Amino acid sequence: MTLIEITAAKRRREKLAVLTAYDYPTARLLDESGIDILLVGDSLGMVVLGFPDTTLVTMEHMLHHTAAVARGVQRALIVADLPFASYETPEQAVANARRLIAAGAHAVKLEGGATHAARIAAIVADGIPVMAHLGMLPQSVREEGGYKIKGRTPAAAEALLADAHAVENAGAFAVVLELVQADTAARLTAALAIPTIGIGSGTACDGQVLVTHDLIGLFPWFTPKFARQHAQIAGSIRGAAAAFIEETKRADG
Ligand code: KIV
């Protein structure tokens, strides 16, 4: 999957399917299933490392998991998140984006709109593709006081539209819209030439992204309302463990 194919998908009105991966077997299984883009998201902080939010994820965590994912992928485009406080200046953003690419990512993602346009432009000028991220920004959850829907009022929708144009003009090849009110997400999708990838933002986006643990029921302690679960892996793990425990304790000798 190349950037040209991703841009062409929007022109052809073909939807893009994006899932997160943080390890070799999951990345390999999802790649073999035909996923378009694999995101090594900093959501790994919660669903893999057990942190309360993404703000404790470091570059070292991202490099370790990006390298594992890259070893399992033949076809999908691999996008890796720049974690919290790793892109405070254009220079720092470029230096850390290069490290993620060296670990095996094909592109990087960062959170922010017009305020981050210079950082996006600097990374793109260095030859590294950037996916932008607008709407609810998980790295700002502590300031925001929770995961809230964005773009509900006309003024908020206008601000998001300005941010969307800013990241497109800075050279982003796609933009994640997280928890954006569905009509606003549809408006952004129609206004941009680059694909919008929605999460909890309605069906009008050019593609959808989900945290794989939410899709397959591997993080049963919390599942976002918008995530449709297609498997219950937590139940299978508990069942297999119970069977093993029972078998071991029953055995003679
Ligand atoms: O970190 C992540 O998994 C993400 C998605 C929720 C878009 O940024």
What would your notes on this structure say?
With 253 residues, this protein is of the alpha/beta class. The chain has a single domain (3-210), classed as Phosphoenolpyruvate-binding domains (TIM Barrel, Alpha-Beta Barrel). Helix content is 43%, strand content 15%. The protein contains eleven helices and eight strands. It has helices at residues 3-11, 24-32, 44-47, 59-72, 90-102, 117-125, 141-144, 154-169, 182-191, 212-215, 233-250, and strands spanning 16-20, 37-40, 77-81, 107-111, 130-135, 174-178, 196-199, 207-210. It has an eight-stranded parallel beta barrel with strand order 1-2-3-4-5-6-7-8, surrounded by seven helices. Strand 4, helix 6 (117-125) and strand 5 (130-135) form a beta-alpha-beta unit. The termini are far apart. 3-methyl-2-oxobutanoic acid (KIV) is lined by residues 20, 39, 41-43, 81, 176, 178, 199, 209, 211.
Task: Describe this structure in a few short sentences.
The chain is of the alpha/beta class and about 250 residues long. It is built from eleven helices and eight strands. Helix 2 crosses helix 4 and helix 8 runs parallel beside helix 9.
Key phrases:
alpha/beta; 253 residues; binds 3-methyl-2-oxobutanoic acid; TIM Barrel; globular; 15% strand
Write the layout of secondary structure elements.
Layout: H1 3-11, E1 16-20, H2 24-32, E2 37-40, H3 44-47, H4 59-72, E3 77-81, H5 90-102, E4 107-111, H6 117-125, E5 130-135, H7 141-144, H8 154-169, E6 174-178, H9 182-191, E7 196-199, E8 207-210, H10 212-215, H11 233-250
Parallel strand pairs: 1-2, 1-8, 2-3, 3-4, 4-5, 5-6, 6-7, 7-8
Helix pairs in contact: 2-4, 5-6, 8-9
3-methyl-2-oxobutanoic acid binds at residues 20, 39, 41-43, 81, 176, 178, 199, 209, 211.
